[in-house]
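Need the bound structure for manganese (II) ion, inputs here:
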Amino acid sequence: MTLKIHLSQEVQTAQADGAPIVALESTIITHGMPFPQNLETAQAVEQTVRDAGATPATIAVINGNLHAGLEPDQLEQLAQATSVAKLSRADLAVCLAQGNTGATTVAATMIIAHLAGIDVFATGGIGGVHRGAEHSFDISADLQELAQTPVTVVAAGAKAILDLNKTMEVLETLGVPVIAFGQNQLPAFWSQDAGLAAPLRLDSAADIAAAHRMRADLGLPGGQLIANPIPKEAEISKSILDPIIAKALAEAESQNITAKAVTPFLLNRIFELTDGKSLDANIALVLNNARLAAEIATELTKN
Ligand code: PSU
Ligand code: MN
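Answer from helper R.:
Posting the output first, comments after.
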């Protein structure tokens, strides 16, 4: 049996035309944001990609079928579905083989994007090394994926709920280029500056596309992480966020939240503790990432 990837109408057309396509993940929809903001954001992200001249391909597994690009009704159903699985590299094959429905994390979205011939992917923030990982060993499979699957991922840095130093060290060990867009400092998701220097910096979509091609020419596996700072007007200052993150982390620990549940739990508590402000920032940064990803995808279609 050959694996079939179901493409939306617009992705089919874009592929036939050799037009730029941007992959989008679905875990952010099902596990990262509450309804109805999750649906509104997913629709706005898709429209932002279109407005920037590319075609969005939201990736998910629906009833055992791989999808690259969802029709509007499929997106609506996914955004309202409860008890959808969160799929990373380890979970994909079982979900498909069982005919189940699942949302794809950064890692799983990269795998499917690559299978569908899509080189660029926009998200909010990647998973990384959790604080206390020296005890829990909780390191997101997103990092390993960046080391082995050749997709350029545009994110706003790793989330401040993580241990950013350790995340950067692991990415360096894995040979993943972490490229800050237009600044020397590493962005920290809800704010522009993590207080850490970024290992690499590029200032244009054309330069990022050239680096993507160069990795392929060198025969290097894996992708690149583009760390695109949240727009200034949308950022939440560290002084506001740090105590809230500390509270959310303490609650996760006292409630024994582990494994896959950690990231959704923390995002939801931070949303509640900031009266929704973390969500506004999250939406702004995802849209910003979608725009840059569309520009990179457009550059990659030029020779
Ligand atoms: N960043 C967000 N919202 C999210 C995620 C990241 O702003 O929902 C999701 C992504 O799908 C990412 C996943 O791949 O969380 C990481 O989960 P974990 O830490 O369990 O690997
Ligand atoms: Mn984890």
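Comments: The chain has a mean pLDDT of 96. Residues 25, 27-28, 31-32, 105-106, 124-127, 140-142, 159, 260, 263, 267, 282 surround pseudouridine-5'-monophosphate (ligand 1) (CB under 6 Å).
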